Amino acid sequence: MEEKQISITVLLPAGKLPLDIMDKARELARRFELGVYCSLMQNLRLTNVPESAVATVKEELAALGADFKGPGKFPLPRVCVGKDHCPLGLVDTKAMSDKIISRFAGREKTKAKFKIAISACPLSCSSPKATDIGLVATKKGYEVYVGGKGGPFPKVGRRIKREAGPKEALDIISELVDFHHQKTLSKQRMSKLLSDPEFPFAEA
Predict the structure, then answer these.
(1) CB 136 within 8 Å of CB 96
(2) What is the mean pLDDT of the segment spanning 187-191?
(3) Measuring CA to CA, which residue among 123, 182, 167, 175 is closest to residue 146?
(4) What pLDDT does residue 30 have?
(5) CATH entry 3.90.480.10 includes domain 5-68
(6) How high does pLDDT run on average in the chain?
(7) In sequence order, what DSSP letters do the residues of 155-174 get, joined into one string?
(8) DSSP per residue over the chain, as a string?
(9) 177 Rama sector, left if φ>0, alpha if ψ -120 to 50, beta otherwise
(10) Second CATH level (architecture) for the domain 78-193
């Protein structure tokens, strides 16, 4: 009987791949004949992992500080490269992503399914307007969007705030996450909650 194969996703905050983890993933891929996929959510996915090798792969990556995708974990924001690497960038997207991750670090279980994206300028390269919660940096602060999505029936998110500072943007995200948690039993995109009479934000 052929051995079952699975995928292992290594979480990469702000899409940054540490060189030691990259080297270890390359070595493991060669050792176990794995596939390597850079996901659209800016994480590293190892595919075709034999079930017998799962523990070894995770242990060797975890020893270098790797964390893995799993049920209930708060989603890492998808970001563009930000002002340090783009002449159009207005903000440090990694710094904002780190603030979001820190704000929700103690949250034990997050209900699926929603995503967060941050763009350093209105060009929106990280697709924040097509994401459940999106931040778009402008010269006057963040615009906050909610309810965007892709898929076969794509939808542009609703703008609910203009000119938000970093703390206000974080507070809005917290309120949205809490609302999502209260209103859903399991998986639910934000777009389906916009019509709820108790949705906490009007269009801006």
Answers:
(1) no
(2) 88
(3) 175
(4) 98
(5) yes
(6) 95
(7) BPPEEEEEEE-HHHHHHHHH
(8) -PPPEEEEEEE-GGG---HHHHHHHHHHHHHHT-EEEE-TTS-EEEEEEEGGGHHHHHHHHHTTT-EE--TTPPPPPEE---TTT-TT--S-HHHHHHHHHHHTTT-S---S---EEEESSTT-TT-GGGSSEEEEEETTEEEEEES-B-SSS-BPPEEEEEEE-HHHHHHHHHHHHHHHHHH-SS---GGGGTT-TT-S----
(9) alpha
(10) 2-Layer Sandwich (3.30)
Quote the tokens at residue 158.
């609703």
Q: Both tokens of residue 61?
A: 């990556």
Of 74, 144, 70, the closest CA to residue 103 belongs to 74
Handedness of CA 22, 24, 30, 35 (dihedral sign): negative
Please answer whether residues 52 and 41 qualify as being in contact, where contact means their C-beta atoms are separated by less than 8 angstroms.
Answer: no
User: Which residue, 106, 102, 58, is CA-closest to 77?
Assistant: 102
| Domain coordinates in residue numbering, the chain | 5-68, 78-193
Cβ(82)–Cβ(47) below 8 Å? no
Buried b (16+ CB within 10 A) or exposed e, 108-137: eebbeebbbbbbbbeebbbbbbbbbbbbbb
Token pair of 1 as six digits: 């009987």
Token code pair at residue 97: 């992503």
d(CA 167, CA 174) in angstroms, rounded, equals: 11
Q: Give the model's confidence band at 108: pLDDT under 50 very low, under 70 low, under 90 confident, else very high.
A: confident
